[in-house]
Predict the structure.
Amino acid sequence: MAMPVLGAAPTTELSKQGKRTVLSSRRSRSDALWGIFFIAPQLLGLLAFSLIPVGYAFVLSVMKWDGLGTREFVGFANFRTEFADKEFRDALVHTLYYTLISVPGGIVVSLLLALALNNVRFKSVYRVIFFLPTITSSVAVSMVWLWMLNGDFGLLNTYLREWFNLDPPNWLVSSTWVIPAISLVAIWAGLGFNMVIFLAGLQGIPQTYIEAAQIDGASKWRQFWNVTLPLLSPTMFFVTIMSIIASFQVFDFIYVMTGGGPGTQSTTMVFHIYEKAFVSFTFGLSAAAAVILFFLIMAVTLFQFWGQRRWVHYDS
Amino acid sequence: MAASTDTFIEPHRTGARVLRFRRSLTTILLHTVLILGSATMIVPFLWMIGTSLKDFGQVFLIPPKWIPDPVVWSNYPDSWNALPFAHAYWNSTYICVIVVTSQLLTCSMAGYAFARINFPFREPIFILFLATLMIPHQITIIPLYLIMRRLGWIDSHLSLIVPPALFSAFGVFLLRQFIKSLPEELEESAILDGANRWRIYWQIIIPLIKAPLAALGIFSFLGTWNSFFNPNIFLSTPEKFTIPLLLNMFKGLYITDWTLMMAAASLALIPALVIYIAGQRYIIEGVALTGLKR
Amino acid sequence: MSRRISPAGMFNTSINRRRLLGSAALAAAAGSTVFKAPAVLAQDPVEVTWSSWGNTGEVENLKNFTDSFNASQSEIVAKYIPVPTDGYQDKILTQLNGGTAPDDFYSGDALIATLIKNNAVADLTDLLSSDVSKSKPEDFAGDLWGPAKTADGRYFGVPVDCNPIVLWYNRTLLEEAGVTEMPADTYEAGNWNWDTFIAVVDQVIAAGKKAFVSGTSVYSWITNNGGSIYADGKFIANEDQKAIEAYQWVQDNLTSEKFIFSGGLPEGQGEDAMFMSGQLAFTALGRWGLPLFRQNQSLDCDIVPYPTNTGNKIEPSSVAVAYWVMNAATDTPDESFAFYTHFVSPEGQEERLNEGGNAVPSIKGVEEVVLSDTLPDHKQYFLDARNVGYGPFREEAGTPGLITELDKINEELWLNGGDVQAALDALAEKANTMIAEAGNA
């Protein structure tokens, strides 16, 4: 399909080549300074309030500490203990399982939602309704769902029994259903969030490209797949990374809704980290688990950054 | 050639009726799905609002009672008076305003730099930003507390304002992505015209990222408005508490004041809702792309 | 191995004595001197900070208590810092690390052992028996010490008050189910045992209502069968015939759906709501349900101790206890202790628990607090239960993380069924290993 010709393009190309050597060195020096200037406040915040606490986690991971007394250096013992701990490995599995359900599910649904709400009637009303869960604090959301999903008296099961004559399980205390149930709550709660980001992303897609595709006779699907989606890819990249980072660290829902149960069936990594610190008072183990989680998330994120060359288009 | 159902293209004369029918069918289907979806979104809220107007004895009836009977309006003033909410609303509001404004500014600056300015160690520093998102706050709270103590900011709102105002990896990442997807030509021409980076940032970039800025504003507001963990750790004086702290105080060790808690939580929703409705307008109306003629 | 947390040692600033300009309120209300002046008289009032968790009603009550303490004397100004229940432990730990913890504070039974181990809370053995103490160890009722008293008999905390667990029952519900003799009357006649209890349960279920919600920990049932859980520092319930019998009984009742497992409810917070809504016949709660139940006009309820299976009228049952501790690093030990002992003294407990109180005094001599209340009818049973009951087990609560681990095993058993003996053996193994590791035998 024909791309609209952008006004300044040709001259810039020529100018780039011609003036490159003159401008570049001067530019790169001033750019370095400008760069530092622009990131200065954030960098300051990072150094002052973030780096030290994060570094502390790493230091703590090789110590033995019960939260109050002295710290004792133990080398990699904590890591060995954690890897050997069935509960840790289970927590890892549960977290991955949860991520696998909630991230793709959440992204697909919120993308569809954003597309639908981009040009439909009453979109303002819908946008508010779908964002309601995100506005509420996760604690309130968790409590509400805790009651809705209760096996005996909860709303969901009461109506499932009454209207459909089913015999539904007790969602949050069933080993099979607890993680899917929490994932659904998470998708529900996070829909509005991703929807808003996708909406913002859709706004940034120049109508000209879409129109050009239409002129060429592309179907709605092809318009979406070949124009919208690639242009949305930076947003998609962001949403994917943030969703994965967030889902790897799910805590609030678990804390309020299941306490890690039944047994340990819904204990996720961060819940395990929390328990090891504030319940068992073994901060060293907790930090070790946190470090392992860190490397896991970092690996996944770096992999995505490396992979973005394939599918993320910043400027067509 | 598949027929487009978009309003932009005028329907072929012969297939006009078919097109209109197909269009309305799709629309009906779409609305059905949306309405069902909305129902799922809204049901918990109906329960929340319903509970806030109930007498405690009716909260957990089977079958559930949707409409409170009698309607206990007094739950609202009761919940307001039970705890220093006037202070809390003021605290939460001014903290949010400062943090959001500051984040919009500093995140867009940093986002621009990471997206467009070449400076040494740009990529490693960016990864470092992201890295800080990957350690759960349960572990970092103790050293953060010690830092706050060193600064003398315990039981002060500064501990809640300054760190997020200055630093938000989320915000930086979000804006970097959006800025990166802007056409480079816009800046190139400005640079050739002799504009410096600040002018480019202020006059070209900012107007173009209204939508993601609005999104960031919304999320930043929500994050600060609903934040519980840090305020809980850093604040001691009840008059300095923020709203989530007070909400949690309806919850005792054994007993929770459900009706009052839901009343207070429903009230606390309102400012967040207002901000959202105001903010999302920027996301709907979008942005006029200067330099790119439609 | 562990060192004293000293604020001065960690950072430059420390908890200074905050000199307060005497507030008018202090001078004015001469009133009763409720406490004895500390040995060292400070010129300006000394500030003592203290913290607890609580919901709005409880916090209000404690605030009033603090105000009246301040009004009654002028040497000490107590400053109350309420902390939201959910974040309480996280906050106290963080504060202890930062050297800014309050002078006196509440501690859950699971936290106190770690506090003791790290010398974060003061050894109060001497102070409690001294002249300035209004709360000597022998003044406390029942056996509520648990982890607050170490194996070698030293006291690091006292029960701030207590909540003996009894069975609340809904009279209207029982009547409608056809129950003619109320459990309290059965108890008075000496016939309140497992058989009569189950008979009532059956009637309730036949009437289509829920009878009883069973919790994760069923120690009360074990002891009401004459069994024991811990002995000589070890978990022995898996070898105690009566304990095994009790476990099996609970499981049978769960399987036959006479009991419901509370697993899906948030920490018992749902049970009282169910009870309030008239859906549940019996609920095992302490006195904390009273303020809430009182509000509900349509709820007609009463209490009865646990039914026994030994032939005795009453057996020891579980008592929920929270502890009151003093910061080992307090700058103002005398004043902090003065407030401390006042808080749990007979007058202090009476003041806190009077009129809508939600707990039972842990100290002897103020039974009137419970008895003078109009509700419930058989309030005497709270005291009976307290006097023979037991607080948390030192071996268990004193081993960090043990309770949570045991809960996990129990939950599996109650939810998914399984062999009771196997579960008890698993509990024993877990418990004894962790106890030994913690050096807590």
